[in-house]
Every structure is written in C-alpha cells, then in structure tokens.
Amino acid sequence: MWLLLLLLGDAASRCLHDETQKSVSLLRPPSSQLYPNFRSSFLTLPENHDPQPLRIQTCYIGDLGSEGVWDPEEEGIRRQARAMAAVKVAIQRLQGVLAVPPVQGPLLLSRDPAQYCHAVWGDPETPNHHRCSLLNPGYKGETCLGAKVPDAHLRGYALWPEQGPPQLVQPDGPGVQNADFLLYVRVAHTPKCHQEPSVIAYAACCQLDSEDRPLAGTIVYCAQHLTSPSLSHSDIVMATLHELLHTLGFSGQLFKKWRDCPSGPSVRENCSTRQQVTKRDEWGQLLLTTPTVSHSLAKHLGVLGVSLGVPLEEEGPLSSHWEARLLQGSIMTAIFDGAQRTRLDPITLAAFKDSGWYQVNHSAAEELLWGQESGLEFGLVTTCGTDSSDFFCTGSGLGCHYLHLDKGRCSSDPMLDGCRMYKPLAKGSECWKKENGFPPGAENPHGEIYHSQSRCFLANLTPQLLPGDKTSHLSQNPSLKEEELTGRCYLHQCTDRGAYKVQVKGSPWVPCLPGKSIQVPGYSGLLFCPWGRLCQTNESANAVTSPPVSLSTQGLLFQLALGLAAPRGYTLETEQREELIEVVLQALGSRAGTSRCYFHSPSITANLMFTVHMWKSPGCQGPSVGMLHRALTLTLQEKPIEVYYGGVSFTTEYGKLLATPDPNLSRMHLSLPAGLCLLMLISVYVLGTVAYQKRATLQVGPSPSYHSQVLQGRRGSAGGIREV
Predict the structure, then answer these.
(1) Active site includes 243?
(2) CB 21 within 8 A of CB 248
(3) Which residues are CB-neighbours of 385 under 8 A, at least 6 positions away?
(4) Between the CA atoms of 632, 493, 234 and 205, what dihedral angle is there, to the nearest 10 degrees?
C-alpha cells in the first residue's frame, strides 16, 4: 500500500504491500480429480496461442455500512466514482503494455476447500479418499482481501459420500467473459485505514492459474483520501497503477513463482522454474537478479556488459519495491511523491518480462532520469554524501528537485538510508503552476516567473549588485558552490534536444548552455544551466496534470480543439474536469484505434473546451502523427463523439484546429473519406503491433509445481479441515 506521509513538509507515500500480501492465501485451480463432473476447461490454453493485450475486468464490491462507519450516500457515490475512474485509466495504460495468451471461455475462480469443507474422508481404501465429507456450516463464500467474490465468478463445490458420486451443493457460476484478470475494488474505512491514517490504498493478489500467473486481486481505497483535496486525479491513478502492478506479479510473495519461458508465454512446454530470482550479495543487500532486469539496470547506469542485480528495498526477508536510492521516481519504489514525478520505467517493465507470464511492449516505458548514466557507484550509501553525483545533496538548503519541476529542500526519508535529495516543498514548490506566482504589484526580488513552461534553476539573481566582487568571483567559477545558490523559477524554452534558453522577469531570452553558469541582462548574479535534465524527451506525457511538455524541434506538433456540449448551465469542478479529460482521451484513442502515446498535455476549460497536443512519442507504435491528425479531424467532422461522465452525456463539437503543416503528406490524404483513412491507420497500427509481438522474446519464470496442502496434509479443527 502507499502511505501519504508528511516528512519535513514533503508529501510522500510509502507502500506496505508485503504485510498485506502475507495476510492473503493464494489459491490455484483444484486438481481435476476432485471435480470430475465439473467444467474444467475454463483455463485451457491452445498451444502456440499468440499473446493478446491483457484483459482486466473490474468489479466494484460495495461495503455495507463501510465496516461500521456511516458514509453519506452522496459522499459514498462520489468516492466510488473517483476510484473507478482511476481504475479505468490505470487499466487503459496497461492495455498497450502487457499481453498474455488469452483465457479461453469464461474465467472462473477457485474456492478454498479449507473454507467450505469441515472434514474429508481419511481412509485411503475408500474411492473418495480426501474428498469433502462434511461441509462447514458457517461457510459464506469466498473473499479476496475483504471483497466478497460473487458466486457467479466461482467454481462450484460438492459433498461426497464415502463411496459413489458427489452431491452437488453449488454449481459452477457462469464466469466472466473476455477476462484474463479480475480486479475487485473496495472503498472502505477498514481497520488498516484507521491504524495507518495516511494510507491511500493497498492491494493483494488472491488467485493464480495453473502456471501461477495472477488471476485475481483486490485494491482497497481508504475512503477519506478519495475526497481529499491534496490528491489529484492523477495521483489516484498512479497509486492505482502501483497497486495493480503488485497484484499482477511485482510482489515478494510471487517472485519465487516466476517462470523462465525462452519461447514466450504461449509455448508452455518450454517453460521451467527460475532457479534464482532474488539473492543477497556479500553486504546483505537483497537483489532481483533475473536477466532482463539486470541488463536494463546496466543500460540505465551506462555500464553495459556488467552483470548487475537490481537492489530491492530492505523490508525484511521479502521485498516488493525497488531500492529508492537507486531508482527514485520509478512506479515501483516504496515512496511516492506525486504523479508528475513518477514513471512507468523500463526496469519495472523488464521485471514483468522476466516473470514469464507476460509479453511486454518495452516501447511503452517512460524514461527514468534519476541516476541515468551515473555508473556503478551510483546510489550507494558510501557515495551519496559526497560530490560524486548531483542527484544527491548535502546539508538542508533550498535547491531544485532533480526533474526541475519544483523547488526543493535537501532532506531525507526512511527509504533513503540517510542519503539526501532535494524533495519538493510542501506548498508552492511547483514552478509550472501559474497560481504559485506573485500577485500583481507584489515585490518579486529575484525576477521569478511561474508558468506552465517554467522550471527550477539554481541561481542567485537579484536586480541589485551583490556585495563586493562576488559576481565576478562566481563568473570565474562555473561549478557554482551549492550553498551560494537557491532554487528559483524561470521560463525555459527548448531550442533543440538537450538545448534550451531561459527568461527572467523583464529580461530577453538568454541561451542556457547545459553545465555552465550564465549572466542575465538586468540582473546581478548567475544562473546555473543543468545538463541532461531538460529538453531530453517528453516529460511525463501520460500524466494529465503534469506540466505541458517542452518539445524539441525534431517532431511536428498538432493541436486538436473540441467543444463539449452539455446540458444548459452544467458546470464542472477542477477535479471533475481532470476525470472528464481521461474519458474524452479514451474515446479519441478508441475512435482512432491508437494508443495514448500520441496525445499530450490535455486540458478542459471552464466553458468545456477540450484541447490536446498531438505528437508521436519516441517508440510510439503506429502511423505518423500527421496522418492520424488528418484522419481524426475528418471523422470528427462527420461523426461527433459522445461520452458519459457523472451521469451526463457530453457530445464533441468540432471547434478549431491549429496545426503545423506536414510537408510530407500529399494532398491525396485530404480527399480520402474518413472511414477509409481510419481503416488505413488501424491497419498500419495493427501490423506494427503484430510485428512487435513477433519480434519480442520473453523470459519467464515459474514457481515449483504446486501441491495442495489441503488435500495431502492433516489439519485439526482450527485449521479448517480434518480427516474422518
């Protein structure tokens, strides 16, 4: 689970997944001999069946009375809507990332014999040895982390005489069609939420298939946080994605079940148990050592050819998170400090490839900036307090968060083991929020500018001359001592990949040479230009509340503007507009048959004008952005999109369109009917996706074969089953 902690004024969250997963029994399909008359083909996979995008079906499980705490009906509906909106977006993000051989027919979950059966036949001479002879009268069905699993999702069960056929007590349910994973969602005031008041959500996997791939899990949202103004829609989405990845296999409880499938997950006979997934090095550090993960870390640190294991957070004998000192900003670290600072990173996706259960689209990974190209010594406790890396800091001064979106204070947290970094300030740290700026007429002594394109720079600019000759002294020292600088917000504009210029209040644009200090006309002092941090790639393009991305000149930028028609007088709060953005984006992607990687920096104004920038992110699979843009404009003119949110229908009205012309597109494209143009786009996209899937190899890792303790061992009455 992620906890929302206030540490030294910094908003952060810590996840305690391991203790949650330990409390849940992992069930697998029962042996077919137990249920000879029951349907048993619901998980049958045809040989060589190509993986398809993972299909996650969601079921909201309401808590009657929210476990004894009264929840006003209107408030409860609002919380449920916010949770389900976040789940929908998180699942959508994973659709283009993970693929599995699809479950054939309806998905049915198993029942736990330890729950419904009180005793089994103990005489090995009887035909029905070890089958259920006495039912548990208190059995009320199956649960998954407190969520009551509907009988429709479950296999049936029977009572067996000492000899002869069984008496069917509950038949198989109809199951869930078109599903590879079932996600149950609760919004509740659970004891865990009360004991840990800062918990946002927690989750666990509950059921596995015959190859140990997760089949079902539950996310529990602590109700009070779903109406908290401190958490944006994007924060809830990112927390959901983190918990969902735990349930899908990134879990210390599941690492030992990973499989090695050299030919991919669809060729099961080539799979074997991974002999080693985790180990401890000579210093006692727990490492994840599978091949794709190790290669991905070596590539990230710029030490290809070196065999590395990826350190896991020290959380006892098991750990379900990356070491924060090494992989700050990854979706799977234990500390979360905001959606705009979190990435679905390449090393995490490499872990899912190594699980053996999934085919992974690595091009969907978001660049992880922390520690990039920093070498083997990066992230060690012995080096983080030195000047070996400017990702870390010393002391407690003010500076810039490493992504340069925020001002920050040099501080630590429990996961950094004493290492210090510039962590965003509690209030007003975001340079990219215009509302954080100075009110009209207020004194602005350092010429700061808060704007969507502003970033944090280390500087000591002032309109007055500094005492003595400090300015000239600093000019001769481009390294700039840290204690002489403070984080300030100034406009930036990309001029090329890795190159940019800056502007201070009232100054002209000044070229900013990465790694150098510059002077700004009209100001005394210097401004330091960070290298490798700005204008490299798009910044958090998938987060709806992230600041607009600074584009380099390498790609074309298009803008799509659409009005949304709604009932007269209908208004939306800021939070609701963020959620509606995701609904419209999903509809646009569905209409175009493409993924989210084309759409960036979406927004909706108070008068319901939807605007989104379009460009093709690096690694994005599909047609050119110009071709997609033209097809969308044509089809939107011919047929508006209708979306539903909050019980209200919104219809798109084709408004205005601002576009940079694409000289490579011939006039012929303009004359194509919208339907034909979209058909061409979808064909190109599908062919590209198929080519990617055929090209990808999968390394996987299963657990040792499972043997039911329920049907082989003896349990006393306290254990739930005994022999008779």
Answers:
(1) yes
(2) no
(3) 392, 394, 418, 419, 420
(4) 90
Lowest mean pLDDT among 110-119, 192-201, 493-502: 192-201
How far is it, in rounded angstroms, from Cα 485 to Cα 518?
Answer: 13
In the β-sheet with 310-311, what is the strand arrangement from edge to edge? 278-280, 286-288, 310-311
Model confidence over 609-658: pLDDT tens digits? Answer: 888 888 776 556 678 777 888 888 888 888 888 888 877 888 887 543 43
- Per-chain mean pLDDT for the chain: 79
Give the separation between CA 170 and CA 174, rounded to whole angstroms. 12
Q: Point out the catalytic residue in the list 142, 211, 243, 366.
A: 243
Spatial contact of 74 and 82, defined as CB atoms under 8 Å apart: no
Of the candidates 452, 418, 290, 414, the residue with the CA atom closest to the CA atom of residue 355: 290
| Amino acid at residue number 681 | L
DSSP 566: -
**pTM for this predicted structure:** 0.73
pLDDT in tens, 560-571: 888 888 888 787
Selected residue with higher pLDDT from 617 and 68: 617
| Sheet of 454-459, strands arranged across | 510-512, 499-503, 486-496, 454-459, 527-528, 517-518
Collect all residues with Cβ–Cβ distance below 8 Å to 584 and sequence separation of at least 6: 562, 564, 602, 604, 610, 641, 643, 650, 652
pLDDT of 715 above 60: no
Chain centre distance of CA 390: 27
Task: Judge whether 613 and 601 are in contact, CB under 8 Å.
Answer: yes
Tokens of 577: 């507009």
Could you tell me the CA-to-CA distances from 462 to 453, 467, 486, 521 in Å, in that order?
Answer: 21, 11, 12, 11
User: How many angstroms from the chain centroid is the CA of residue 291?
Assistant: 22
pLDDT at 618: 59
184 vs 273, higher pLDDT:
184
